[in-house]
Design goal:
The complex is a heterodimer of chains A (189) and B (182). Chain A is mostly beta strands. Chain A is 15% helix and 46% strand. In chain A, a hairpin with a 6-residue loop joins strand 9 (117-124) and strand 10 (131-137). Helices cover 76% and strands 4% of the residues of chain B. The chains are: A mainly beta (189), B mainly alpha (182).
């Protein structure tokens, strides 16, 4: 009789514990997760170059989908804090003993709500101010340059970033666009 | 006797358990709906529950904070009701005037005995501290604003003081009753 009572009480105690633990587990299990801004490896190495993503994981400015080794899809989510927002992209290091050229092709189309804006690709070198190159001009709804070529010396590191200028009545906080930005490494013999 | 207590506790635990989970889910749903947050529901093989994956950490923080606040608020209201009953509708120490008023309004069924009340109190008390534990855990994980956890903790201390105070009053009322009849 005593053992039966002990068993039944233990069983009831377990059920009570389940009533406390299971809801707690469910609520903790519903913990939201944050998608990291860069999918895949942070650093990509090839025979010609080493590419390091510079995205800021903490602020999810840009999410990049790597379509292949040399094409990236960019989705810029809302988060522009001012009218001229910089989005760091990546650093490309020439790991060969020869110079080569990095060729970017401007996006053919930019998706998202119509916002008057200009998108620049910034090339930054150590100890020098970044140089801006217009890649898309939504003010006039046209692509600014079809190709941008940047020479890279042996062992040189180049940093690239996007600079977005937002014009007019647009609220920078609701800024949200997506586009494709392919690039290619061209070696010259 | 112990099995009777455990059965009663299990019986009383169903409602707060359901409230804890449902308010969290409803809260997340409402906040995501009203604020138009961007998120995906994903199923991962290592997880039993689906995950809500946000693209913006600020949106995740806001959705989680306010859904947690709603969850805590519901448990708080439940426990507050138990405390109100224990202070004002407790048959061992309700004033004769209050009893008379309840009888006039035909609300005598609201009177609660210590057996039901304290089983309810134990369960709601546990859930109240579980809820605040969850909030603190989330705050440490940077998924809930710290002010939510700190405010909830402060409210918990107030409610805990009130229930301890009532248990003390019950204890002295019983001692006076036993002394009077011994």
């Amino acid at each position: 009789m005593g053992i039966l009572k002990l068993v039944s009480n233990t069983f009831l105690l377990v059920i009570l514990a389940v009533f406390l633990v299971v809801p707690t587990g469910i609520v903790l299990g519903l913990r939201p997760q944050i998608k990291t801004s860069v999918l895949g490896a942070q650093t990509v190495k090839s025979d010609l170059f080493q590419r390091t993503f510079l995205n800021d994981d903490q602020n999810v400015w840009i999410k990049t989908f790597e379509k292949d080794n040399q094409t990236l899809d960019f989705i810029i989510y809302k988060g522009a804090s001012n009218q001229n927002q910089r989005y760091p992209l990546y650093e490309i290091e020439n790991t060969t003993a020869k110079p080569f050229e990095i060729v970017f092709r401007s996006p053919d189309k930019i998706f998202g709500p119509f916002i008057k804006q200009k998108i620049y690709l910034n090339r930054c070198m150590t100890d020098k101010p970044c140089q801006s190159f217009l890649i898309y001009n939504l003010v006039d709804e046209q692509k600014a340059a079809s190709e941008l070529t940047f020479p890279s010396e042996a062992g040189e590191k180049l940093k690239f970033e996007l600079l977005v200028e937002i014009y007019g009545q647009t609220d920078p906080a609701s800024f949200n666009i997506s586009f494709e930005l392919p690039f290619q490494i061209v070696t010259r013999e | 006797m112990l099995s009777k207590i455990l059965l009663k506790l299990i019986d009383e635990a169903v409602l707060p358990a359901v409230i804890l989970v449902s308010t969290k889910i409803i809260g997340l749903g409402l906040i995501n709906f009203f604020f138009h947050f961007t998120f995906e529901i994903k199923f991962f093989p290592q997880m039993i529950l689906p995950a809500l994956v946000y693209t913006d950490s600020q949106e995740a923080l806001l959705a989680n904070s306010y859904s947690n606040l709603l969850m805590y608020g519901a448990i708080f209201v439940g426990f507050l009701w138990v405390i109100v009953k224990s202070i004002h509708l407790h048959e061992t120490h309700i004033s004769p005037k209050a009893t008379q008023k309840l009888a006039q309004w035909n609300l005598l069924k609201l009177l609660t005995n210590s057996y039901n009340l304290y089983h309810q109190a134990v369960v709601w008390f546990l859930f109240l501290w579980i809820a605040v534990g969850i909030l603190i855990f989330y705050s440490f994980s940077d998924l809930t604003y710290w002010w939510v956890s700190v405010a909830s903790l402060a409210f918990n201390f107030v409610l805990t003081y009130l229930i301890i105070d009532d248990v003390e009053r019950e204890f002295y009322a019983r001692r006076a009753f036993n002394n009077g009849y011994s």
